[in-house]
């Protein structure tokens, strides 16, 4: 079989597989770039501290308003939220709509792909700040 014919046959064989790949795959590197919007107020990773906002190590699975040493608003402490991907996505789009009375002053991230990427970046860090 001629090389071009083989290439065409392989292309036809694998095209459906390539097209079936999820279009919304999370991109940790893009999430790290998005993190730059957060880092003025938050830290993450080993040695992270509370600054304007609480450190975000181990965010997913944590109850809102529970980071030791951070002074949360009553609204945040009493929100009853446990952070997961869906709650975080809703919150980061418009923090004050999700938790009226929160101290967080942030315009939000509206793009779902950017939120998914940021989520992937944040999920790398365990409670101790080490990458999982």
From TrEMBL:
Pfam families according to UniProt: Cytochrom_C (PF00034)
Alphabetical list of SUPFAM superfamilies matching this protein: Cytochrome c
Domain Cytochrome c: 26-126
InterPro entries xref list: Cyt_c-like_dom, Cyt_c-like_dom_sf, Cyt_c_1A/1B
Signal peptide feature range: 1-20
Keywords assigned: Electron transport, Heme, Iron, Metal-binding, Signal, Transport
Name used for this protein in its record: C-type cytochrome
